[in-house]
Amino acid sequence: MPSRRTQTLSASNPASIDIAADLLRSGGLVAFPTETVYGLGADAANPDAVAHLYDAKGRPAFNPLIAHLAYASDALQIGAFNAAAQKLAAAFWPGPLTLVVPYQGGARVCELARAGLGTVGIRIPDHPVAHALLAAFGGPVVGPSANRSGHVSPTEAAHVSEDLAGRIDAVLDSGPTRVGVESTIIDATGPELRLLRPGGITRAQVEALIGAPLADAVPNDVARPASPGRLLSHYAPRARVRLEATHIAPGEALLTFAGARPPGTEQAATILDLSPEGRLTEAAARLYGALRALDETGVPSIAVAPLPRTGLGEAIADRLGRAAAPRPG
Ligand code: TXA
Ligand code: MG
User: Fewest CB atoms less than 10 Å from the CB: which of 54, 66, 102, 222?
Assistant: First the structure.
């Protein structure tokens, strides 16, 4: 792909939003902050822009993109919301929830962005800069995480530059993101809600609202496909990732939680505690930055101590499981 000059736009400069919105209008690629991770924005209605986006990320085009909008009311123009979907939207939007619903948006989200599916994933981010950009642009913006496909998602503008400098037009920088793991994705296309990806809204929050257990995705169900992009190896640093480590080998990095120090810790090359006080919100916010930082030390292997799986721990465990999965190729 031809190289692009990537400008960093400071979100604290009011002119940056208009510059970024103009870039999107002219088919450009602009990374922007959300409350979860930085997204790579492109005009959802512009197939050329979307094709460039897949190319910049190195992402397979069978993996659909989430349409981001400024206002929940705009979502009704592109998706069909049943009663359950409306209830979730009312409770959690704006916020870290993506709803997959039947598509009814005409040309607003191009077929390439939806990977040819009859459904669309929609999200209303809870972040002032994302909101300002989406409102200024005035239409759906696709926003996959702004990393090379398969790599760790970016929670700071510098992470975006590490992966995508020279491949996109701009990064809108507003510092680290608050939640740190991606949105929860729920399939609301059928009578029963299904959890496609755990994320920033916990299972318990959803179950408390709907008053019933949340069903899981059915893998390889032709009628109701799980998220096509939920590839097993994903969110992966260069170093090997070893889960549920109860013993640390010499020279490994230790990624731990709540002060846990498994036997062998004294032989670790480096130790990083995601939250010494044992807070899962803090651990989620620091997870991807920690994987990048440990990678930078050049360790061959990252040993991960056991973490709780309650609340945000479900999303953390999901991402660590994919970071540890066998890699293609
Ligand atoms: O928090 C987030 O969701 C971030 C920020 C930037 O908004 N975005 C994000 O996008 O994580 P991405 O592309 O990295 O992950 C989106 C996931 C993919 O696994 C994709 O397969 C799934 O959403 N997805 C999108 N549209 C879908 C659809 N119509 N049906 C099922 N899964 C869908
Ligand atoms: Mg991603």
Answer: 222
